[in-house]
Amino acid sequence: MPTKQTASKQAGPKPSRPHAPGYGLPKTSKGLLPWKWAEDRLTKSREYWIATTCPDRAPHVMVVWGLWWENEFCFSSGSQSRKVRNLDGNSKCVICNENADEAVIVEGVAERMRDVPRIREYLSIYQRKYKFDMAGMADGMISLKEPVFVVKPKKVFGLTEKAFATTATRWKFAE
Length: 175
Description:
Layout: H1 7-11, E1 15-16, H2 35-44, E2 48-53, E3 59-64, E4 67-69, E5 72-76, H3 82-89, E6 92-97, E7 102-112, H4 116-130, H5 135-142, E8 148-160, H6 164-167, E9 169-172
Antiparallel strand pairs: 1-9, 2-3, 2-6, 4-5, 5-8, 6-7, 7-8, 8-9
């Protein structure tokens, strides 16, 4: 992964308790998860769930491969896929890691990546992570005919199943 993150990106957002009336969450910050905990799970996840909203407001959930990269989630998909058509109409989405026992839920806004050098870097990192030859798809992405999305987080939630009440954590990102 690239290491050109700024000091503020490396520090990450500050943790707090999520607003969850009726769940018995403590009022103190004891047990809150550090941002590095969430980053580790997002980085190491192989599969991710993405939830988008259809034009008729029905939910749509699909599994995708992607990268947690520089405090953003990046993924690609075919331009005619349901998730891409949904994101073109409503860019709000939710990304979840693959392990619900140590869940990380990212609420954010998806934008199409338009920076061709960054798309090339994405393809290189993606190919190393998945050991998947992207040659057949790379030209479409580099020419911007096929989308690569960047999901900029607004809020992220993390929790462990075994200690839900004490570990439930929310991180808010600057608007």
